[in-house]
Write a structure and sequence with these properties.
Strand order of the largest sheet: 2-8-7-4-5
Number of strands: 17
Helix content: 10-25%
Number of helices: 2
Order of helices and strands: HEEHEEEEEEEEEEEEEEE
Number of domains: 1
Strand content: 35-45%
Largest sheet: 5 strands, mixed
Distance between the termini: 77 Å
Length: 257
């Protein structure tokens, strides 16, 4: 009797281990970076311009992001995927092998990273605490768009007339463009000490890779403005901006701070 029970228990244990192995082997989404927990971005940050993936459409891609969000989606196919960081959604386009990489400038404190599938279903979630020592961004403007092989640029004109864009990423006031990306973004403007007044937010359809004789790709851009991020006073507003032709420059938002 005892021998029979031991055999049954051994068989059940083997079955459970085999099932667990299959579940982990078939995990559809692997988030390689960032990992959850405490993260000292003041020590482990790296120049993201050397880590952008895939190769940039335009040569001006550069940023001072504090992290690269990267991973792999098994069987990604042509499904719609969304990267959501701290509640801010950005279109995600994995390559043919399901690999993806997006730079992001994490603010100090708690940060949440999610990968969502079709219908907004959360497929992967990581929570981390960033201890960068840098002051939090009181104003953050995030640009994203929904087309591969395209480059859309964020332009921000500050109340004192300064112009932040890929050609002038750092402003005298200390704010600027943290991330200048392609293939859906993000492009991020942030400042820890915003000037009082009106900010003009423009979106420029810089370029696209399409064949001669065909129509340019229609692009839908989203501009999200976040104030007092990661505080009880945080506010977020998103605008949708349709872009039809490369070269288009559109006033997407007027922000009064």
């Amino acid at each position: 009797m005892i021998l029979a029970l031991r055999l049954i228990a051994g068989a059940l244990a083997a079955l459970l281990l085999g099932t667990a192995a299959l579940v982990f082997a078939a995990e559809p989404i692997v988030l390689e970076s960032p990992v959850g927990g405490w993260r000292d971005t003041g020590r482990d940050s790296e120049p993201m311009s050397a880590a952008v993936y895939p190769a940039p459409l335009a040569s001006h891609a550069r940023h001072r992001a504090s992290a690269l969000i990267r991973g792999r989606i098994a069987g990604a196919g042509n499904k719609s995927w969304t990267l959501v960081v701290n509640g801010n959604p950005v279109w995600l386009a994995p390559d043919a092998d399901g690999a993806f990489a997006r730079p992001w400038a994490f603010g100090p404190g708690s940060n949440g990273v999610e990968i969502r599938g079709e219908g907004g279903r959360v497929s992967k979630r990581v929570q981390l605490h960033s201890a960068s020592g840098a002051p939090p961004a009181r104003l953050r403007i995030i640009l994203g768009w929904d087309a591969r092989g395209t480059d859309v640029d964020l332009h921000v004109v500050t109340p004192d007339g300064q112009h932040a864009f890929y050609g002038n990423p750092m402003l005298a006031s200390g704010g600027g463009i943290d991330v200048d990306d392609f293939d859906g973004g993000p492009e991020i403007f942030s400042t820890a000490a915003p000037l009082r007044g009106t900010y003009l937010v423009y979106v420029n359809y810089f370029g696209a890779a399409w064949r001669a004789g065909t129509r340019p790709l229609l692009v839908t851009a989203t501009v999200t403005v976040v104030t007092e991020e990661n505080t009880v006073h945080e506010k977020r507003e998103t605008r949708v901006v349709p872009l039809r032709n490369p070269g288009d420059l559109t006033l997407a938002h007027v922000v009064r701070f």
